[in-house]
Amino acid sequence: MKFKLDIKRIIICFLAVFGMGFFLSFLMLCGLGTDPCSFMNKAISLKIGMLFGTWQLIINAVMLVIVIFWDRSSLGFGTVFNMVLVGYYVDFFDWVWSKTIPSHIFTDNITRWPVFLGALLCFIISAAVYINSDMGVAPYDALPKIITQKVADRFPKFPKMLVRMGWDFAAILVGILAGGTPVVGILLMAIFLGPAISLVGKLFFSKQKKTK
Q: CA dist 91 to 19, 64, 68, 172, 186, Å?
């Protein structure tokens, strides 16, 4: 478990989680796609009439129990920040934007595409900083890592990326069954999030990791 008292990394992780919730609120209002986990949880929360943040906390808590029994090494302050805060940040800023930004900004193609692309870039950077802070990951992200390791132990030649792809595809499928419509943002997130995580790690965290 990564509940280490590295104040600098805790602050960086907290700010990155704030950024994820802040920019995710724009992505959802634009309706052009989010990451698979958010897509699934938003579709389900709308289906059952529950706040996005509340449902996201519930499903993460269920996954957390599984992670605790299987492998706690992926857990830390970042796990708590992500599972508790991101969804409620989205709900809060959704309310703020409804009071301050005209709704057509998120529906007219002339305005919503620039907003979407800008928010997508900033969300990916925030997520990359969050993961590279090495303070633990959300249960949704921890489970495929655990499954990948268990599959690798039994089938060393099995492509590891297929586990994560299958995990995200399952989330998208659940979201579709709950009434969500998958759009371009999910594809863009899948393409660019991995490289962004690697780039941010090399630019901002590689020196810190070497000195440990």
A: 14, 22, 28, 21, 20
Separation CA 107–CA 89 (nearest Å): 22
pLDDT tens sequence across 179-190: 998 887 787 777
Q: Return the higher-pLDDT residue of 196 and 30.
A: 30
State the Cα angle at 84 between 79 and 88, rounded to 5°: 140
**Cβ(97)–Cβ(21) below 8 Å:** no
State the CB neighbour count (10 A cutoff) for residue 134.
20
CA torsion angle 187 121 88 181 (round to 10): -20
C-alpha to C-alpha distance for 89 and 22, rounded to whole angstroms: 6
Burial 46-82 (b: 16+ CB within 10 A, else e): eeeeeebbebbbbbbeebbeebeebbbebbbbbbbbb
pLDDT digits (tens, 9 = 90+) for 129-156: 888 888 888 999 889 888 888 887 787 7
Residue 134 · residue 4 · CB < 8 Å: no
Residue type, 96: V
Of the candidates 16, 14, 30, 57, the one whose C-alpha atom is nearest the C-alpha of residue 188 is 30
Provide the whole-model pTM: 0.85
